[in-house]
Write a structure and sequence with these properties.
Layout (H helix, E strand, L loop, with lengths): L1 H14 L7 E2 L3 E3 L1 H4 L9 E9 L4 E7 L9 E8 L20 H6 L10 E2 L2 E2 L1 H16 L9 E5 L5 E6 L5 E11 L6 E3 L12 E5 L1 H14 L6 H10 L1
GO cellular component, one term: membrane
Protein name: IPIL1 protein
Organism: Psophia crepitans (common trumpeter)
Length: 239
Amino acid sequence: VQELVDNFMFAFRFLTADSFFPVLQREIAVGSAFEGWSPREKDIVYCFLVPLEPPHGHAFYLELSTLGEMPVRNFYIRVELACTCTREQLPGEMLCLLHHPEQELRSNGGHSLLNTLCTESYLDVQKTARWFHQLVKAAWVFLPQSSQYSLKMLPSSRSCKFQVTTNRQQKLMIELMFGVQQDNSDIFVSSQSTEAIFTPSTMWSESFAVAEVKFFRHVARHAPRDSFHLRCLQLFAHI
């Protein structure tokens, strides 16, 4: 699974090079499937968190939501254009989105992230999920696994889910979530669904999944031999 997703990410970066879409960072394997205690052993979903960084000429700002009382904190990701005029312009480099005339930008193929994956000035989870959905389908033809495996896209409004069936009829369920890192911490605002009945498409929930991965690795290193703590976690999750 890790090798397959690595290949996907390599293809994603090739397809989005020199664009105004978010810059995709190295994926992080998160969740119980990688920790070894998935509560549903026969229907395991391999989850990855893909950190997003702003593209050329853009900046991300996190705004804490004040809508109601939630079990987790929720944020909005405001997208703003950033001036790049002070940088030394290299031949063929993209123009400054903030200060160059719109007609000149259009003639040079410039499209702001605000016009593609945002609702008003905020990064939209559902639009980003559809963009990932399209990326997976476009990248699949470049992957070496595509000649032997089959791909099936699965419905999801806040993440990118798909199923890969190997030549041995093994089905691998993979989910790509995405988010923005808070400063230099292990905390992200992510596309992960909340327990709320209705979550606006511009709302991103605070996720500790990456911090949890590091915590469980620490526990695994220090757990006594033949410890049954993973079985306890499975039991708790079932309950």
